[in-house]
Design brief:
The structure holds 2 protein chains of 2 kinds.
Chain A: H1 21-26, H2 33-37, H3 41-51, H4 63-68, E1 78-84, H5 94-100, H6 102-116, E2 118-125, H7 130-145, E3 161-166, H8 176-183, E4 207-211, H9 212-224, H10 226-231, E5 240-247, E6 253-258, H11 263-269, E7 284-288, E8 297-298, H12 308-313, E9 322-327, H13 332-346, H14 352-369, H15 377-388, H16 395-417, H17 423-426, H18 429-432, H19 436-440
Parallel strand pairs in A: 1-2, 1-4, 2-3, 5-9
Antiparallel strand pairs in A: 5-6, 7-8, 7-9
Helix pairs in contact in A: 3-6, 5-6, 5-7, 6-9, 13-14, 13-16, 14-15, 14-16, 15-16
Chain B: E1 15-20, E2 23-28, H1 33-39, E3 63-68, E4 79-80, E5 91-93, H2 99-114, H3 130-138, E6 156-157, E7 162-164, H4 174-183, E8 188-191, E9 198-201, H5 213-218, E10 224-226, E11 239-244, E12 253-259, E13 262-268, H6 281-285, E14 300-302, E15 308-310, H7 313-324, E16 329-333, H8 339-352, E17 358-359, H9 367-377, H10 386-391, E18 394-398, H11 402-405, H12 407-420, E19 423-428, H13 433-437, E20 441-444, H14 450-455, E21 463-468, H15 477-488, E22 491-495, H16 501-507, E23 513-514, E24 518-519, H17 523-533, H18 546-555, E25 563-567, H19 577-586, E26 589-594, H20 599-603, E27 606-609, E28 618-621, E29 627-630, H21 642-652, H22 662-670, E30 695-700, H23 714-718, E31 725-727, H24 729-734, E32 742-746, E33 752-759, E34 766-770, E35 787-792
Parallel strand pairs in B: 1-5, 16-17, 16-25, 18-19, 18-21, 19-20, 21-22, 25-26, 26-27, 30-34, 31-33
Antiparallel strand pairs in B: 1-2, 3-4, 3-5, 6-7, 7-10, 8-9, 11-12, 12-13, 14-15, 14-27, 23-24, 28-29, 30-35, 32-33, 32-35
The chains are: A alpha/beta, B alpha/beta.
Chain lengths: 441, 796
């Protein structure tokens, strides 16, 4: 069990102008690029496969295996698409990564493109983060000017062109097939599978879609070796990841550590729970392991290793490792209502259960939050979630039910209180906000 | 359920055996689970699924449990049966045997209903609504939803004809998928998201589709309605009669719904071999032409003051017979006639009038065309079929714009090109929207110059050439088509514009043809027909075509034609309406058989009212040579068919036809059987020499235009394509016209056509204008391919 931070992706975030090519090079950036581009693509795929790198976007699918699904005998062009549409509530790792160290991602893009035989790569960035888009484009330009992108990179004969594409601000476009539709200029809605993107993805050509963090991890595997990478982490969850700690902790932020660290360790690294106005230290009430789509957990899970397997066994998902920490001042009902409002707002509308279900759930939760709950509302919520989970077109509908069912599982009494007492009486919002002073003004 | 017609030439299908609800069933590989279940009698509820549209899996209504996907492993979650293909050994449990599937279906249906208004009692769809029906059969009896429903302002116009009540929409995307996949008119699309998602149109892209009405029919709720039918009647008050569309030669199956003696609407019929489940908006909405107030209800006879006055049937028939007796007479027929009608006119001319002067071609025509029809079309039975269009290597269109002239063919060609990669080429003056939508390529040819282009077509023995009636204006074109097809062993089919034309050819409404492809010039054939008709002999003198008949009336003289029997002819359709009007005035005696008052009525001496299509049975022969019989929709004992009327006149003349009813006429026609005697030779007319400079006219009629068959439908008319003059940049520039500005085309008369201009890829010196959108192009006094002048501006 590792007990220290392992800064790899985050190592240069505090450097002066870390986002520039020079700064990145000064730490060894692009030093292994030539070696990687002269390595046979199949060997690169093997290296990543052997390293045990799993997708950092939430699902944890082995990255090397995803690459190996690209049919190399298919005469069509192949594409690499980086999913930088980071929109999950609580998730905030890719955006600071691209802001602080865009060249890490670009180097990963070049290596991954070579590995899968793609001459064109795209980074699909959520449209709201204009500052990140600008920074990525600047880095992309730098890389072109330095001969790191374009034709015959570093004289290796490898061609990779990179396009930084701005999304238009839709949560659904983080779903990989909706992202592809959006990237093609269509309305972003998930596609029917099969065909899977590896066979017919972008423009109906073989396509790999990877998360920012997955791709940015690739250069370190090439530089330090697959053995080094797989020496980190736990048996089935190899490597290091960024944990995004937010909420009622003393020092929220990005903590890069090997997979398998516990929340207790992370909260300690984050300076412990926040101190209340009366000087007492807050108690952990509940938390999400990987954003709001992952079923929430409680203090009983503090010592659980944060890797794919253990979190799965606890009935949740590691997801994007967006650890949202809530203390005893927080109303679960209010929190779940906020999340559900988000899902209602972001439901793409394609399938019935998600579109209509989130619309309905929001109304029931609003009632409970206001203390106007009706007999049978809790059973109704659970039943509606059952009618959404596994019935919707894509995983977003499933994700919308996670906070509700898990909250009812652990905090049913709070929902029952919603039959008669508004959450604002039981848990005054001012006490739980991080910005209570500002709210009071 | 529509099963695709599988021609026998295809290899036998591979079968897959699976188990659904404990019942083993074998279905063709690739079948979707939802349709395999239908075969064991299990109807899985569905909204977005449609057998002719690609699967989308959007509504999530058709969830089933699949404990074994055929590989020993099951799906952990219920699956949408409309997106899952069968696999060998697959085990499927539907709502019949699986509680999980049943609950998933009930859950989705409940979700669909939370935002659906409870306005079934005032909704057009109420009573025939898949949502209503499936809510009853697969839903909860009571809703648990007590909250606020989403609402939208009431209906928005998707087009003038198609209205959308957004709160009723279940967002199944059938309409958008139809428009994109089937029609190729992706002008409606989902907009917004979540519960506010809705169907909408773009700001500069109106829902301009000839097939828009199909979206209304396949809408599984009452979200899409037609301005024409909205709030007019309840489905359970309607009586439905299967019928055939009369607006083109496709023979599309339709369903006519009427209530208390009035047709309320028409729907597409389900005929996989012909129109699948789609019809054009013309077939759907243009049915009020016979109820426009100008219907002729009683026989009329012109009195001594020159006024038409009502007469009894016996009197009118007697006057008609007296007028025709001892006068040299000829017969002009038109496109509304059925096979039986045409047969009656054909027999009436030969037997009652003793002449071969009969011609159905109330449009531009040529001797070459008559010879083409006699040698390649008449009596050839079923030829190229819709299904075969999908099997072809190449379909070459010569002088035919299917989207305007035979919408069902257009849809089939689009399907053939889209799904099977059939190559579509069009010998025409320019690339049309229809050609683009069938992924076709243009073989450019100026009007009248098609013959040269045809000779250069790349054809093989799996190619099909579809020729349109416009080729009559292009010397040598029919000959070139026959020669090219013969050389490549390709097949040829003639696609006329009107429903009755193929039947008229078969019935012998041509000066050179007797029924069944028999030649007038062939004594043996004449004897054969005479024997079948029970007369001693038939006239052996060759007949005259329309132009010849009109010329003969005009040339006057003692031996000239003095009397005309006219049925179903619009004067403006004739190639030279000015001459035709003169001839009608000059003729001593005119008998008009017509449904509605027309220009001929004004001049006729005896006007004999006949039944419109809905009031009578009959048969059309479509372009394939397929018989499309239909029954009367409305029972109108006073409404007589052309057959009955002609029989009456013939009997007054003492030369009876031998039949009086549609059934008897059909039986008499069928007695001819196939003809194995002498056939006409294929035409071998040389191509015309290229004109020396100047501007020539190309034209055809748009699907939605000013034709009288479309009267009484303002909303439908409002969806017509914008009428424009098309020419290339050089031609417009030479005329001094800025693209987009008005241009004026003039021919040999004082009538001109003024329309906005549009640049298209026409050859130099060719200008295109619609045939009958605002101005009837024949009024210019030139036919297609003729010289015109193009000038800028002009009032419009």
């Amino acid at each position: 069990m590792p007990d220290t931070l392992t800064p790899v992706l985050t190592d240069d975030w505090a450097d002066d102008r870390a986002w520039t090519l020079d700064a990145y090079r000064s730490r060894g950036g692009y030093s292994v690029l030539e070696k990687a581009l002269t390595t046979k693509p199949a060997d690169l795929v093997e290296q990543v496969k052997d390293s045990g790198l799993r997708g950092r976007g939430g699902a944890g699918f082995p990255t090397g295996m995803k690459w190996s699904f690209i049919p190399q005998d298919n005469p069509k062009p192949k594409y690499l698409v980086v999913n930088a549409d980071e929109s999950e509530p609580g998730t905030c790792k890719d955006i600071p990564l691209m802001m602080a160290s865009p060249h890490k991602l670009i180097e990963g893009v070049i290596i991954a493109s070579h590995a899968i035989g793609a001459k064109n790569a795209f980074i699909y960035v959520r449209g709201e983060v204009l500052h990140v888009i600008r920074r990525l484009r600047a880095a992309c330009r730098e890389a072109y000017e330095a001969g790191l992108l374009g034709q015959d990179i570093l004289g290796t004969g490898v061609d990779v062109d990179l396009v930084i594409h701005a999304g238009a601000g839709a949560y659904i476009c983080g779903e990989e097939t909706a992202l592809l539709d959006s990237l093609e200029g269509r309305r972003g809605q998930p596609r029917l599978r099969p065909p899977f993107p590896a066979v017919e993805g972008l423009y109906a050509c073989p396509t790999v879609i990877n998360n920012v963090e997955s791709i940015a991890s690739v250069p370190s595997i090439i530089r330090e070796g697959k053995e080094w990478f797989s020496s980190l982490g736990t048996e089935k969850s190899k490597g290091y990841v960024i944990y995004s700690l937010s909420g009622h902790v003393a020092r929220p932020g990005q903590y890069e550590a090997p997979l398998g660290i516990t929340l207790r360790q992370l909260i300690d690294l984050g300076g412990g729970m926040r101190t209340n106005s009366d000087g007492t230290v807050s108690e952990l009430k509940f938390w999400t392991p990987g954003g709001s789509s992952t079923p929430l957990l409680t203090a009983e899970h503090l010592d659980m290793p944060l890797d794919y397997e253990a979190v799965g066994e606890a009935g949740s998902m590691l997801g994007t490792r967006a650890l949202q920490i809530f203390d005893q001042t927080t109303s679960v009902v209010r929190c779940v209502l906020r999340w559900t409002e988000f899902y209602k707002h972001e439901s793409c509308g394609k399938c019935t259960p998600c579109r209509e279900g989130t619309y309905w759930l929001t109304q029931i939760l609003t009632r409970l939050n206001d203390g106007r709950g009706q007999d049978g509302d809790i059973e109704l919520l659970v039943d509606l979630c059952d009618n959404i989970l596994g019935r919707s077109f894509c995983a977003l509908g499933d994700g919308a039910t996670s906070p509700i069912t898990s909250a009812i599982q652990y905090f049913r009494d709070e929902f029952e209180a919603g039959m008669h007492t508004p959450s604002s009486e039981l848990f005054p919002p001012a006490a739980s906000t991080l910005f209570a002073k500002e709210a009071a003004v | 359920m529509t099963l695709e017609a599988t021609p026998e030439t295809e290899t036998p299908v591979e079968l897959v055996t699976l188990t659904i609800d404990g019942v083993e069933v074998s279905v063709p590989k690739g079948t979707l689970v939802i349709r395999a279940a239908e075969l064991i009698g299990v109807e899985i509820p569905r909204f977005c699924d449609h057998p002719l549209l690609e699967p989308v899996g959007a509504c999530r209504q058709c969830m089933v449990d699949i404990p074994d996907a055929g590989n020993g492993r099951g799906f952990p979650k219920p699956q949408a049966s409309c997106t899952i293909e069968v696999a060998p050994g697959m085990v499927v449990e539907t709502q019949v045997t699986s509680k999980v599937a049943e609950k998933a279906q009930q859950g989705t249906l409940e979700f669909l209903l939370i935002n659906h208004p409870l306005d079934c009692p005032v909704c057009d769809k109420g009573g025939e609504c898949p949502l209503q029906n499936q809510a009853m059969s697969h839903g909860h009896a009571e809703s648990r939803f007590v909250e606020t429903k989403r609402t939208f302002p009431k209906p928005i116009e998707v087009s003038k004809q198609v209205l959308l009540d957004r709160e009723r929409c279940v967002l199944c995307q059938r309409c958008t998928r139809f428009s994109e996949e089937i029609a190729g008119d992706p002008f409606i699309e989902l907009i917004d998201r979540g519960a506010h998602q809705q169907i909408g149109t773009g700001p500069d892209a109106p829902f301009e589709s000839y097939f828009s009405g199909n979206t209304i029919q396949i809408c599984p709720v009452g979200a899409l309605t037609s301005a024409d039918y909205r709030f007019r009647s309840r489905p359970f008050d309607l009586v439905s009669t299967p019928s055939v569309a009369e607006h083109d030669s496709s023979g599309a199956a339709i369903r006519v719904d009427h209530r208390r003696g009035k047709v309320m609407r028409r729907l597409a019929g389900d005929d996989p071999e012909v129109n699948e489940e789609w019809i054009t908006d013309k077939d759907r909405f243009a049915f009020t032409y016979a109820t426009q107030g100008d219907r002729i209800r009683t026989p009329l006879v012109r009195n001594d003051d020159g006024e038409l006055e009502p007469a009894s049937w016996p009197a009118a028939l007697a006057v008609a017979a007296r007028g025709l007796k001892d006068r040299k007479s000829a017969v002009l027929t038109g496109g509304r006639l059925t096979l039986e009608d045409s047969f009656a006119y054909s027999v009436f001319a030969r037997v009652a009038l003793g002449t071969n002067d009969i011609d159905f071609r109330s449009r531009a025509h040529s001797d070459e065309e008559a010879q083409f029809l006699a040698s390649q079309v008449a009596g050839t039975g079923r030829g190229v079929t819709f299904a075969e269009l999908e099997q072809a290597s190449t379909v070459a269109l010569v002088g035919l714009e299917p989207e305007d002239e035979a919408g069902t063919i257009f849809l089939r060609l689009r399907k053939a090109a889209r799904k099977r990669g059939v190559k579509i080429v069009s010998v025409a003056s320019h690339t049309t929207r229809g050609l683009t939508k069938t992924f076709g390529t243009l073989v450019p040819a100026a009007p009248g110059r098609e013959a040269d282009a045809v000779a250069d077509l790349e054809l093989d023995d799996r190619s099909i050439v579809l020729v349109g009636e416009r080729l009559a204006t292009s010397a040598g074109a029919y000959s070139a088509v026959v020669a090219a097809a013969k050389k490549a062993n390709a097949r040829v089919a003639w696609v006329p514009r009107r429903a009755g034309d193929r039947g008229a050819v078969e019935a012998g409404c041509l000066p050179t043809l007797l029924p069944g492809g028999r030649l007038v010039a062939d004594a043996e054939a004449r004897a054969d027909v005479a024997a079948a008709l029970g007369v001693d002999s038939l006239p052996d003198e060759p007949g005259r075509d329309v132009t010849g008949i009109i010329g003969d009336v005009l040339s006057g003289g003692r031996k000239g034609t003095k009397a005309l029997v006219v049925g179903g002819v619009e004067i403006d359709d004739l190639p030279d309406p000015v001459a035709a009007r003169k001839a009608l005035k000059k003729a001593q005696f005119i008998v008009s058989l017509e449904v509605r008052e027309s220009e001929v009525t004004q001049i006729a001496d005896v006007v004999l009212p006949v039944a419109p299509m809905v009031e009578r049975p009959g048969t059309f022969i479509n372009w394939e040579g397929r018989r499309r019989a239909f029954d009367a929709v409305l029972s109108e004992p006073n409404s007589l068919t052309d057959i009955r009327v002609l029989a009456g006149v013939a009997e007054e003349l003492g030369r009876p036809l031998g039949f009086r009813t549609v059934a008897a006429a059909r039986a008499a026609f069928d007695e001819f059987g196939t003809w194995d005697g002498e056939r006409a030779d294929a035409p071998t007319v040389p191509a015309a020499a290229a004109p020396d400079g100047g501007v020539v006219l190309d034209t055809w009629r748009l699907l939605i235009d000013d034709g009288r068959g479309q009267d009484g439908q303002p909303e439908y008319k409002a969806t017509a394509r914008r009428a424009v003059i098309r020419a290339n940049e050089a031609t417009l520039a030479a005329a001094g016209i800025e693209p987009g500005q008005n241009g004026t085309i003039a021919g040999s008369t004082r009538t001109t056509v003024t329309l906005p201009t549009e640049v298209a890829d026409l050859p130099d010196g060719v200008v295109w204008a619609p045939g009958n959108s605002g101005t009837h192009i024949t009024a210019l006094g030139v036919s297609r391919g003729g010289p015109v002048t193009l000038k800028p501006g002009g009032a419009k």
